[in-house]
Design brief:
seven-stranded parallel sheet; binds uridine-5'-diphosphate; single chain; alpha/beta; 17 helices; Rossmann fold; 13 strands; 15% strand; 2 domains; six-stranded parallel sheet; binds uridine-diphosphate-N-acetylglucosamine
């Protein structure tokens, strides 16, 4: 039996964990035993608890309750907590998702104890080291024994950085295995889409009709913490809302910034905009329902960029660059940074875009099974 300790902490990691946990319980429970550790990086009910029951994710065996903090402070406390658990549980693998501070902490703790790291969502690069996530993912990739990339470009980035795709099992940090396997979030979107239609009342609750609203999310530090950027984005959303309703489930980071004294004027403008609806963060089933029925999505989120594509929606990306370049290459998404004019131009172009095919670029919906099988093959 292979023993895996899985680290989750931020919202997207909790959702990602659903795919692998589901694959283990359905197909691999005789071969893999998983223990989930929640760092507590996200802790509000609607950023964490809401997902476990709704998505059938096993309750974490441990919660480190680290909470928020400066990068160094938060990461250091997580490393300490994870190290203690690794010493106690002695897993065969530490499984890490994505690029958050929870990911980085797990990578540092496990690598010093010679515990093999499995990195799911490996190889993605923005080539912008001002992003904390870029630092986290580079460090994690280079400490991992098994690296699973959701995209071809992610896999190629790893090869370009010296990873040898011809390496053979058994994999280790000095003989790492790199794989292109598709995206576990695509697995999840396929799995939960029907349940979302059945269970979610989010459209009715918010008076939204299919294809008659824009969905938006904002949470990147570059957008929330630079006042001109936050103002420019909201000004653009206010302008768009005069044409089409805009619904925005607001991330706590963005909410906190809008409530700060320097954004008093902006907040007043938002509150006066009749067709711009700021709502609390929603559950994943509600989010899928909002995405699937929107006419267009505006976001700086990695996950939401992809889901926009999964549900055949054009997407305006509020970033200067993206890791998900395959989506850009299809023309279904446009990069606009936090630039008022670019946001509006992209909106005009994409909202009037002719319907056409969204080619399959995120795998076959079985990335989680591939990851589990590869782990079993390596043991
Ligand atoms: C983190 C990740 C980011 C990911 C995002 C997903 C890092 C460096 N960043 O960003 O990659 O895209 O999660 O959402 O790991 N807060 C609350 N309640 C919560 C959680 C956060 O109020 O449950 C507030 C706190 O004021 C906190 C701020 O949000 O200081 C930022 O939270 P943090 O986890 O540090 O970073 P995110 O911006 O959420
Ligand atoms: N999401 C959600 N409720 C919300 C906003 C987002 O369930 O109110 C989901 C979204 O569908 C996606 C994930 O959270 O699966 C993305 O997380 P986030 O945008 O916080 O982080 P990122 O993907 O940018 O790291």
């Amino acid at each position: 039996m292979i023993k895996i300790l899985t680290i989750i902490g931020a919202r997207p990691q909790i959702i990602k964990a659903a795919a692998i946990s589901r694959a283990i319980s359905k197909e691999f429970s005789g071969k893999i035993k998983e223990f989930i550790v929640h760092t507590g990086q996200h802790y509000d009910d609607n950023m964490s608890n809401v997902f476990f029951e709704e998505l059938g994710i096993p309750k974490p065996s441990y919660n480190l309750n680290i909470g928020s903090g400066l990068h160094g402070e938060q990461t250091a406390r997580m490393i300490e907590g994870i190290e203690e658990l690794l010493l106690k549980e002695k897993p065969d693998y530490l499984l890490l998702y994505g690029d958050t501070n929870s990911t980085l902490s797990g990578a540092i703790a496990a690598s010093k104890l010679n515990i093999h790291i499995v990195h799911v969502e490996a190889g993605l690069r923005s080539y912008n080291r001002k992003m904390p996530e870029e630092i986290n993912r580079i460090v994690c990739d280079h400490l991992s024994s098994l690296l699973f990339s959701p995209t071809k470009s992610g896999f190629q980035n790893l090869v370009n950085e010296g990873f040898n795709s011809a390496n053979k099992a058994p994999f280790s940090p000095d003989n790492s295995g790199v794989f292109h396997c598709g995206d576990i979030m695509y697995d999840n979107s396929l799995h939960f889409v029907d349940l979302a239609s059945k269970k979610s009342n989010i459209l009715v609750e918010n008076g939204l009709a299919t294809s008659e609203y824009v969905l938006a999310t904002i949470h990147r530090d570059h957008n929330t913490d630079i006042p001109e950027n936050l103002t420019s984005i909201f000004d653009a959303l206010i302008t768009i809302s005069k044409q089409l309703k805009v619904v925005l489930p607001i991330h706590p980071r963005t909410e906190k910034m809008l409530q700060s004294s320097e954004h008093k004027k902006l907040l007043r403008k938002i509150n006066e905009s009749k067709n711009l609806f700021l709502i609390p963060p929603v559950s994943f089933l509600d989010m899928i329902q909002l995405e699937k029925n929107s006419s267009l999505i505006i976001t700086d989120s990695g996950g939401v960029q992809k889901e926009s594509y999964f549900f055949n929606k054009p997407c305006i990306v509020l970033r200067p660059e993206t890791e998900w370049i395959e989506i850009l290459e299809t023309g279904k998404a446009k990069l606009v940074s936090a630039d008022y004019k670019k946001i509006l131009t992209a909106f005009d172009n994409l909202i009037n875009m002719e319907q056409s095919e969204f080619p399959k670029i995120f795998g076959d919906g079985k990335a989680a099974e591939f990851i589990c099988e590869t782990l079993i093959g390596n043991s």
